[in-house]
Design goal:
The protein is of the alpha+beta class. It has 3 domains: 2-74, no CATH class; 79-180, Tetrahydropterin Synthase, Chain A (2-Layer Sandwich), CATH 3.30.479.30; 192-268. The protein has 7 helices and 12 strands. The protein has helices at residues 13-32, 108-115, 119-136, 141-146, 148-163, 182-232, 235-245; strands at residues 2-3, 9-10, 36-39, 43-49, 52-57, 60-63, 69-75, 79-88, 94-105, 168-179, 252-255, 258-261. The strands form 5 sheets. The chain has a 3-stranded antiparallel sheet, with helices on one face. Helix 3 (119-136) crosses helix 5. The radius of gyration is 49 Å and the shape is elongated.
Length: 268
């Protein structure tokens, strides 16, 4: 760089070259900055090149080829999807049920290739709805209440088998709530009250039977004891009992102005 005849600075060719290189470096930095990215714990980044899945990147600092490769972050930690469904029982009764499904992604490349990042609305939600309806339809409305745990297990088994081929592992299914019509709830309540009353009567009847059996056994034991006591009261035993209780005074008989002592014959 030098000054012209007027004293102004004049750029030489090599100066233009330096400026050009600087601009290129700056452009390169600007372009490469978005290519450096971080992945959080519990996430996986799917890297695509011209729309084709080429690899995945795990938690930490990662790099992708500028302009050519794109990244999509997908959560891989255990997640929960909770939804409400209107379903029908085997006896054609309407039920509003709320289901919670816990799951984790175990094959992220398979899942992304099939559904990209839209697997929830395109796969999970319709499959859960279909399986909840199919299994609820196997139970009467009363069985839905009484066998709630079994119904939950049936939904879990079907969902697990259905979603595994797509790279999703179902870990738990919970029935959060059932909502029935007011008429049915009143009928169920009345049935429970009737069952409780019947059970109470049955318990009282059983108690009466046990009391009667106990009384009968006591009377039988008492009769046996009396029988043995009677059999044991021989003349000798009776004489001994009499002597043990005698106060040493002879019995007296009053008549014709005299008292007669009645002797006791010990040999009798």
């Amino acid at each position: 760089m030098k000054r012209d005849k007027y004293g102004d600075l004049e750029l030489e060719k090599k100066d233009y070259l330096k400026i050009g290189i600087g601009i290129l470096v700056l452009i390169g930095i600007v372009i490469s900055l978005p290519s450096i990215f971080t992945v959080k714990t519990g996430e996986t980044a799917v890297i695509t090149r011209f729309g084709k899945v080429v690899r995945t990147e795990q938690a930490g600092l990662n790099f992708k080829v500028p302009l050519i490769e794109k990244k999509t972050k997908i959560e891989t930690r255990e997640q929960k999807i909770q939804s409400k469904f209107s379903v029908s029982s085997e006896d054609i009764q309407s039920i509003d049920t709320e289901i919670a499904v816990q799951y984790r992604i175990v094959n992220i490349m398979k899942l992304y290739e099939d559904f990209k990042n839209d697997y929830k609305p395109r796969l999970l939600e319709p499959r859960i709805s279909e399986i909840v309806q199919a299994n609820t339809a196997k139970y009467t409305i009363e069985e839905v209440v009484e066998k709630r745990q079994q119904l939950s297990q049936d939904i879990f088994n079907n969902l697990k088998a259905d979603l595994e081929p797509y790279g999703i592992q179902v870990t738990k299914v919970s029935i959060i709530n059932h909502d029935f019509s007011d008429a049915f709830e009143k009928a169920i309540e009345a049935k429970k009250v009737a069952q409780q009353n019947a059970m109470k009567v049955e318990i009282e009847n059983q108690q009466r039977i046990k009391t009667a059996e106990t009384n009968l056994k006591l009377k039988d034991l008492e009769a046996q004891a009396n029988q043995k006591l009677t059999e044991s009261l021989t003349p000798s035993v009776l004489r001994k009992m009499y002597i043990d209780k005698w106060d040493g005074k002879l019995p007296k008989v009053q008549g014709s102005n005299s008292i007669v002592n009645i002797p006791i014959d010990d040999k009798q």
